[in-house]
Amino acid sequence: AAGSRFRWRGQTVALRLAGRHNVANALAAATAAAELGIDPVTVAAGLAAAPVIAGRFEPVEAGQPFSLVVDYAHTPDGLEHVLGAARELVTGASAEPGRRAGRVIVVFGAGGDRDPAKRPLMGAVAARLADLAVVTSDNPRSEAPESIIEAIVAGVEGRHRDRVQVEPDRRAAIAVAVAAAAAGDVVVVAGKGHETTQTFADRVVAHDDRVEAAAAAVAALADMRSRDGAPDDGAASVPTGEDGRL
């Protein structure tokens, strides 16, 4: 996924972080640094070196021809910000000659035993700002996943219902969203970010959206090559670190 660029006090600042909200945060940090007497060149260099934060619009790369990011957004406001950032990416890419207009695809849910009032609001935001929204489970805890999903979908306006799919199994939902993506699209897996577990009423299971997204991207890439008639050389693999995580 692309980052952001902006001009500040004669400097072109290149951020690794995408989205207007991250630009706003960077501007606030830059202004504070300037007030402390740090020169603009040093400030710009420092912002450019700032790493992507784990689980915050974190890119997942497996060689796929579309952008895939994982983000912790789990509130209506957070979801609106992250989908706005995703829309900026596809809008910018589609402005290039010969490029198709990309789509924004999102996978998300809402936590159980937490603020139920936000659920329909999140459904409304996702259906309004994404071209495809796959509603799934996100730490349902003691609640039935289907009940949470029903509350989310209840907030979707009738004219946007055709943009929404339901898949209670989060791993399967990620696979559905990634398989639906084409070149130039942006897929956002929202809600869990850096978390590595999924909590149900009777158990806690291992689950990392970044690992699942990478695996889904590898599978989607193999399927694309198969449909295009290109040989699958088996080179693509799920990227992991020493501890098995991305």
Helix-strand blueprint:
Blueprint: E1 4-8, E2 11-15, H1 20-35, H2 40-49, E3 58-59, E4 67-71, H3 76-94, E5 104-108, H4 118-129, E6 132-135, H5 145-153, E7 164-166, H6 170-180, E8 186-190, E9 197-199, E10 204-206, H7 209-228
Parallel strand pairs: 4-8, 5-6, 5-8, 6-7
Antiparallel strand pairs: 1-2, 3-4, 9-10
Helix pairs in contact: 1-2, 3-4, 4-5, 6-7
Short description:
This protein has 246 residues and is an alpha/beta fold.
What does this structure look like?
It is a single chain. Residues 235-246 have low confidence and may be disordered. This protein folds into 2 domains: 4-49, no CATH class; 58-228, Alpha-Beta Complex (Protein-Tyrosine Phosphatase, Chain A). With 246 residues, the chain is of the alpha/beta class. The two termini are 16 Å apart. α1 (20-35) runs antiparallel to α2 (40-49), α3 runs parallel beside α4 and α6 runs parallel beside α7 (209-228). Helix content is 39%, strand content 16%. The chain is globular and about 55 Å long. Strands 3-4-8-5-6-7 form a 6-stranded mixed sheet, sandwiched between helices. Strands 1-2 form a two-stranded antiparallel ribbon. It has 7 helices and 10 strands.
